[in-house]
Design a protein that fits this description.
Chains: A mainly alpha (about 280), B mainly alpha (about 350), C alpha/beta (about 400)
Structural class of chain C: alpha/beta
Distance between the termini of chain A: 19 Å
Oligomer: heterotrimer
Helix content of chain C: 40-55%
Strand content of chain A: under 5%
Structural class of chain A: mainly alpha
Low-confidence stretches of chain C: 1-21
Strand content of chain C: 5-15%
Mean pLDDT of chain A: 89
Radius of gyration of chain A: 23 Å
Number of helices of chain A: 12
Order of helices and strands of chain A: HHHHHHHHHHHH
Mean pLDDT of chain C: 88
Number of strands of chain A: 0
Largest sheet of chain A: none
Number of strands of chain C: 10
Shape of chain C: globular
Order of helices and strands of chain C: HEHEHEHHEEHHEHHHEEEHHEHHHH
Helix content of chain A: over 70%
Low-confidence stretches of chain A: none
């Protein structure tokens, strides 16, 4: 839509509003970055200090002494496997759902919608006693497979929207050429699906990376992911120094996300709008 | 596609969901109808506690001690209790009392207020109350804010749009625990916002002082977190609004506001519906701000209540009862959507 | 700096390292220890980890979520943690559920090697269930300079404390008092302090039923509620760390805090009020009464279901708790070992205890009562309910929890 010609008043209201939003959206992150580089006494000074001496001590402590690098490794392992496995499972299922005409497909999608809306703590209530009894908590495999399953409903819906946009004639032509379904899927559909797969992958990554409830409860000690590890900096009896390490940790978690948004802005936007705008 | 091929394609995904989503739903139902504890008996025990410098203080008192089996292990009791956990979670007896209690009714308003207060004294109802409040207050605000931002961004030059979208994505994409903390640190006692308002001459503000202010801050967080989602969808939608009807409206002398009101909004109405649906699903799960703001006295959520019961009270059976109530809530919220999708499906055929 | 001082300084700097080097722990394997996060535990963790060598791996997890992690680990088939730091209240349910390993044999075996003192042993009947290393109590922290400037004596009773708060408020101190009312555990703890000093009890030792609704309880709760108007309106969402920060930033003039935080008040990296904070025993509820505080011990336990070697774990713990650690870190906390020399940061703890503050009740009923009170009395503090109503709610919550744990029929 082309922007309309507006009066000066209306234009300035929109302009000022936009700048206010820009400020409000950034302020929490900006302030967190600022105080992460301060000594405890300056970070939470009352009234707040605009300028204070900078130090990297919080980051050094949390990464070197506290072993945050270990949590970063755990996060990398867990998110990488979760993304790859989630995508593989979800692509197969979403492709089938986009091509199958039976009513089972519809009911599966409905079930997936309910699963997608399910608060994760509902599942955790069952995982916790079961996994402790089986002795399989605090392992990569356990968390990965759980996150894969939780990712499925969402990933299936999103990928199905992308598959729907690929004309059926394409795979039908491949079938006529003598491919079976698997070959048609692998040789013909997947190559044109890459943009959709990358977008869905980003969202699978975000779900695994941002998860707090499940990860903090299923992983313990040195097996914690970065996000889950934050919990142990924030509870009661906190010392201010400990809190500062937590802030440095929080900033460390944010930086990869900012880089990701910077690099993949277009894909993220297209992913969000895939289900909605294109129907 | 053949049915057998269909099933072989969806098998991995389906199995993972059955095993780790559907089966746990069965499991919580099972957990909710049982009660378990370690069998204990009161015994008189002499305990010694240290003071310092080598001194100790001796105390004799009744302490529950585990009842041991022949192998010296504590005996675990696992008892079927039927609907007891669920009844106590919604406090059925308490509700009956509230409704049947003899009261001096002064006015209908006072009566409703009193009932409301007593019902919201029960953990589950108070958690549900704030969850619904959060959901239904944030929804219209994010739609309005998102739409306003989309219109404003649409006026920008191509070069400026990128940075605006980039910054707008951050609140919704950064790890929610982290972004909740980042917002919380602005509002702490003597924090940046309070100090800023005081310096600007607005007087002293205490954002974490009472129910109203804490709820307002959490809802503000909710708007900040979810408005970008509405913005992105509506902004993408604006790019697809056809120019013809708008130009026709210009010819007819419609004001810019009339064009938005009678052409753009109706055109985008399916998007408003989708945003509302997804936002309601997400709001029902609100968790991180409640956890981070540490204020469950004033504002609790269904998901946080279950988490707290499970993790901090370590009471699996009670948590399972809350979880079942949560699932029932999800299904009720989604019924209208499912009916509509079902009708659409029928119509397509 | 002269050459001699320089030499002396380097000797002091090297000394703790030298002490660490002689680690006489025998055996190989892996030891994982779970604990809360505060300075004394950091010291002990560092001592344990200094023992690492080929074939001996030692991990400490310090987390503020230690209670939750510990209870789930010790209840499972096998615990990834071989030992955990606990205190008066957190040991009770673990012990009552039979999840802890009696340490009698290990104490006998290593008593001489690590100079284990009787005062460190926590006994339930004949069983030694934990080895304690420090005691702690909450006491009064106050701003010496502000109290002097306004001619206010250090309060010894709660009435005096409320009067002092009123005077300070009149003198223009906006928020004279700070307390962690936002954390339900700390809130209940503050209340239990007042309740016990006021002659109240938490539960009936014979029936295990709660005794929340007594005149003593209502009086104690009303005293606590009276403080609220002298605190920052944000207090209902402040935890212990926030109150500590308020004191360190000079936002409040007094607070009741844990004794082991005293040294942090004089740490210029954290505090703007270095040397301005005085420490005194917790005020009493009545004239000449015992200080309204309870004393706590902190120690280590070994669970029955550990996946490592109890003997090795025990040695590592005892090595960290040896007298040299206490000597090298004397001012960190109030150590139990006789090697400890009282200093200015712990005298208020000892005064509180010598004044007759009782130990925190070591019963699982008390832990449940604590939880039930913490969840319910906030409604009174903020004026949503009367004291009696909120205590009645707490009674209902306690009975529900006690029945679930099988403590109450």
């Amino acid at each position: 839509m082309k922007p309309a010609k507006l009066s000066l008043g209306a234009r300035s209201v929109l302009g000022v509003g936009l700048w206010c939003w820009f400020f409000v959206a950034l302020l929490p992150f900006f302030w967190m970055f600022v105080i992460s580089l301060r000594k405890p006494v300056d970070a939470f000074a009352t009234p707040p200090k605009i300028f204070a001496p900078m130090t990297f001590e919080n980051f050094r402590y949390v990464w070197v002494e506290d072993g945050f690098w270990l949590y970063a490794v755990n996060t990398t392992v867990v998110t990488a496997f979760t993304v790859v496995i989630s995508l593989t499972f979800a692509c197969l299922a979403a492709y089938a759902l986009s091509r199958y005409r039976g009513s089972i497909g519809f009911w599966l999608l409905m079930a997936a919608m309910v699963f997608r809306a399910m608060p994760h703590v509902v599942l955790l209530t069952a995982y916790r006693p079961a996994f402790f009894e089986l002795g399989i908590w605090s392992r990569y495999e356990t968390l990965i497979i759980v996150l894969v399953a939780i990712n499925q409903p969402f990933a299936i819906w999103m990928l199905r929207a992308f598959f729907m946009n690929i004309p059926q004639e394409l795979d039908e032509a491949a079938l006529v050429d003598g491919c079976n379904r698997w070959q048609a899927f692998y040789r013909v559909i997947v190559p044109v699906m890459w943009p959709g797969i990358i977008t869905a992958g980003l969202f699978c990554f975000l779900l695994a990376y941002n998860d707090f409830i499940i990860s903090s409860q299923l992983m313990s000690g040195d097996m914690a992911t970065m996000t889950a590890a934050l919990g142990s900096y924030m509870g009661q009896n906190q010392s201010v120094a400990r809190l500062m390490h937590g802030i440095a940790g929080a900033v460390s978690i944010t930086i990869p996300i900012i880089i990701l948004v910077f690099l993949f802005q277009k894909q993220i936007v297209s992913g969000m709008t895939a289900g909605a705008v294109k129907g | 596609m053949k049915r057998s091929t269909f099933f072989s394609f969806i098998a991995p995904s389906l199995v993972s969901m059955l095993l780790l989503i559907a089966l746990p739903l069965v499991a919580i139902t099972y957990l909710a109808v049982f009660q378990s504890f370690t069998k204990m008996e009161l015994k008189e025990v002499r305990t010694e506690v240290p003071l310092f410098g080598g001194q100790t203080r001796e105390i004799i008192r009744n302490v529950p001690q585990p009842v041991l089996d022949e192998n010296g292990n504590a005996i675990q009791v696992w008892q079927y209790v039927g609907g007891e956990n669920l009844r106590s979670a919604v406090d059925l007896n308490g509700l009956k009392n509230v409704i049947s209690a003899d009261r001096e009714i002064e006015s209908t308003r006072a009566f409703i207020k009193q009932m409301y207060r007593e019902i919201s004294d029960v953990d589950f109802w108070s958690a549900l109350e704030f969850t619904l409040l959060y959901t239904f207050v944030t929804t219209p605000v994010i739609l309005l804010l998102g739409f306003g931002l989309a219109l404003a961004t649409n006026r920008l030059t191509e070069r400026l749009r990128g940075p605006v979208v980039f910054v707008t994505l951050l609140p919704m994409i950064v790890t929610p625990v982290v972004s909740s903390l980042a917002v919380y640190w602005l509002f702490v006692d003597g924090g940046v916002i309070a100090a800023g308002l005081e310096a600007a001459g607005f007087g002293k503000f205490y954002f974490l002082a009472d129910q109203f202010t804490i709820r307002a801050v959490i809802i503000a967080y909710g708007v900040w977190y979810a408005a970008p989602f509405a913005f992105i969808i509506l902004y993408a939608g604006l790019q697809t609004v056809p120019d013809d009807p708008i130009e026709a409206a210009i010819v007819d002398g419609a004001t810019p506001w009339q064009r938005v009101r009678y052409i753009v909004i109706p055109y985008l109405s399916p998007l408003f519906a989708v945003i509302t649906l997804i936002h309601i699903m997400d709001s029902y799960r609100v968790f991180e701000p409640i956890l981070v703001f540490g204020s469950s006295v004033f504002a609790n959520s269904v998901q946080y209540l279950t988490y707290y019961t499970l993790v901090f009270e370590d009471s699996i059976h009670k948590a399972a009862a809350y979880a079942i109530l949560t699932v029932i809530g999800v299904v009720i919220l989604l019924i209208p959507v499912m009916i509509r999708t079902y009708k659409d499906q029928r119509a397509e055929k | 700096m002269g050459i001699r001082q320089l030499l002396l300084a380097s000797v002091i700097a090297v000394a703790p390292a030298a002490a660490m080097a002689e680690c006489a722990v025998e055996g190989n394997g892996e030891v994982n220890v779970l604990s809360n996060f505060f300075e004394a535990l950091e010291v002990l963790s560092a001592e344990m980890e200094a023992c690492e060598r080929d074939g001996l791996v030692i991990n400490n997890k310090l987390t503020t979520e230690h209670k939750e992690e510990g209870s789930k680990a010790f209840a499972g088939a096998s615990s990834p943690f071989d030992a955990a730091a606990v205190a008066n209240s957190s040991i009770t349910l673990l012990q009552a559920k039979g999840q802890l390993m009696p340490l009698n044999d290990l104490v006998d075996k290593y008593r001489d090697k690590y100079n284990i003192e009787d005062g460190m042993l926590i006994r339930f009947g004949d069983d030694i269930m934990a080895i304690a290393f420090m005691v702690n109590a909450q006491h009064l922290y106050f701003r010496k300079d502000i109290f002097e400037a306004n001619n206010i004596a250090v309060p010894t009773t709660w009435d005096e404390l409320l009067t002092a708060a009123e005077q300070l408020k009149a003198a223009g101190i906006e928020h004279p008092y700070g307390a962690a009312f936002g954390n339900s555990w700390e809130l209940a703890n503050e209340y239990v302090n007042l309740l016990l000093a006021n002659g109240g009890t938490l539960f009936d030792p014979v029936t295990s039923d709660s005794t929340f609704e007594t005149p003593e309880a209502i009086a104690a709760l009303e005293t606590l509620g009276g403080l609220y108007k002298y605190m920052s309106p944000n207090s209902m969402s402040m935890d212990f760390g926030d109150v500590k920060r308020q004191l360190q930033q000079g936002d409040v003039a007094m607070a009741i805090l844990w004794g082991n935080e005293a040294a942090a008040m004089d740490n210029p990296d954290e505090s703007t009020v270095v040397d301005k904070i005085g420490f005194a025993p917790a005020p009493a509820m009545t004239d000449g009464g015992t200080p309204a505080s309870t004393f706590w011990w902190d120690g280590y336990v070994i669970p029955k279901n550990l996946d490592g070697d109890p003997d090795l774990t025990f040695q590592v713990l005892m090595h960290a708790m040896r007298p040299e650690t206490v000597q090298a870190n004397n001012d960190v906390t109030l150590w139990i070992r006789s090697a400890y020399e009282p200093g200015k940061y712990t005298s208020a703890i000892t005064d509180t205890v010598v004044g007759g503050a009782p130990p925190y009740p070591m019963n699982p009923q008390a832990s449940l009562a604590h939880g039930a009170l913490g969840e319910n009395i906030a409604d009174f503090i903020v004026g949503k309910e009367s004291a009696a109503e909120s205590l009645a709610d707490a009674t209902a919550a306690y009975r529900k929890a006690a029945r679930e744990q099988g403590l109450l029929k």
